[in-house]
Structure to design on (400 residues):
């Protein structure tokens, strides 16, 4: 089914996700890292359909809120394959997290709060999230591995955190975790973090006579957003990072742990496309503005990070235009220098590589209703998340 047919059937704006591409990417990760656990990072894009695809392809799932966990439960995602993240888990979320495969402890206060919630005679497996001091990522807002960020436990404080977990009989320290950033396209930062984390496994063994069986090195695997971009090379990554861990552990005399990786964007970003319609074309100040029927409410990334996309107006060409959204913000710019000087109202606009952090970060800014999600498999399109309607926004109101 063509983009034009999908737009006619489901309207615009609309997110379109290639289910076949998502499943293929899941299989590529499992094939590249056969001895590791691959957990899809649900914060990138999570619907009931997506959670089902991930479960069926044998991946685990990383969630970071009570809402994401509730969605996973709603499709029967195996709890043993869920990893629960979050730097500020609420008391309600900690209660809901008890019983999942792993809870990632982000601060020492969570240790005692979580332990108090575990039923008698049961144990909850946990990871300690470590801040390894490695900075990587395409933008400062998504670099999460330094001690200047809000995430994790600094290396100097890790021994105290380990001691606290080991003192709680309700908890079992299954491993350590780190996440150094997002949209990382080089293997080198992951190798650096892997060495540091292997050193921490040795520290735990030496100081606490405890061997940790797992090491979660997080996600952040980058993708190509533009034709001349490159993403993280999965083959290179899979050959290099586990080798670094194995060699470092061997040198330190530490048993090699089972590795865990948490790709999100790298699974779904390139499988997604957003479709818009041109609403108006305006020429002023020496520029041509092509305004569409969506914008920063369904794609906040250009405004947040200066993200860039490959955008086309099928059947149109000519001089460069700026594709803008419909919202009351000068920063509501989707793409610049798009070759569509002869664009007209009603034209279809296609924005590629929008599978990650669009639906997930969408909002109802200006009380704009959120777009539907359309899945395509074997050339057949179907609705998996319906379009939000104005009445749904009004139902939340309680009156004056």
């Amino acid at each position: 089914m063509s983009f034009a047919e999908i737009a006619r059937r489901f309207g615009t704006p609309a997110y379109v996700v290639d289910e076949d591409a998502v499943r293929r990417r899941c299989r590529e990760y499992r094939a590249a890292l056969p001895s590791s656990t691959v957990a899809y990072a649900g914060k990138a894009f999570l619907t009931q359909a997506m959670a089902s695809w991930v479960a069926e392809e044998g991946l685990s799932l990383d969630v970071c809120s009570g809402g994401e966990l509730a969605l996973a439960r709603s499709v029967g995602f195996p709890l043993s394959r869920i990893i629960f993240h979050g730097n500020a888990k609420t008391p309600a979320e900690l209660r809901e997290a008890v019983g999942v495969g792993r809870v990632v402890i982000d601060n020492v206060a969570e240790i005692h709060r979580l332990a108090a919630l575990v039923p008698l005679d049961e144990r909850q497996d946990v990871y300690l999230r470590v801040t390894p001091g490695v900075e990587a990522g395409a933008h400062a807002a998504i670099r999460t591995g330094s001690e200047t960020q809000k995430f994790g436990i600094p290396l100097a404080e890790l021994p105290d955190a380990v001691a606290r977990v080991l003192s709680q009989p309700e908890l079992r320290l299954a491993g350590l975790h780190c996440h150094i950033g997002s949209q990382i396209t080089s293997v080198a930062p992951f190798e650096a973090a892997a060495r540091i984390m292997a050193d921490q496994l040795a520290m735990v063994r030496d100081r606490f006579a405890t061997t940790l069986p797992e090491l979660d090195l997080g996600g952040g695997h980058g993708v190509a957003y533009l034709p001349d971009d490159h993403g993280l090379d999965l083959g290179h990554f899979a050959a290099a990072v586990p080798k670094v861990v194995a060699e470092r552990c061997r040198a330190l005399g530490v048993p090699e742990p089972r590795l865990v990786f948490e790709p999100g964007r790298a699974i779904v970003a390139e499988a997604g496309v957003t479709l818009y319609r041109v609403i108006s074309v305006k020429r002023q100040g020496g520029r041509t503005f092509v305004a569409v029927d969506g914008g920063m409410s369904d794609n906040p990334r250009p405004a947040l990070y200066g993200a860039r996309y490959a955008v086309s107006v099928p059947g149109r060409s000519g001089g460069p235009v700026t594709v803008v959204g419909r919202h009351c913000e000068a920063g509501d710019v989707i793409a610049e220098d798009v070759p569509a000087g002869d664009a007209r109202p009603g034209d279809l606009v296609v924005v590629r590589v929008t599978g990650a952090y669009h639906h997930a970060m969408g909002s109802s800014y200006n009380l704009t209703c959120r777009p539907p999600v359309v899945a395509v498999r074997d050339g057949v399109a179907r609705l998996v998340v319906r379009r939000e309607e104005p009445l749904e926004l009004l139902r939340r109101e309680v009156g004056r």
In short: Residues 374 and 383 are 5 Å apart (CA to CA). Residues 139-146 have pLDDT under 50 and may be disordered.
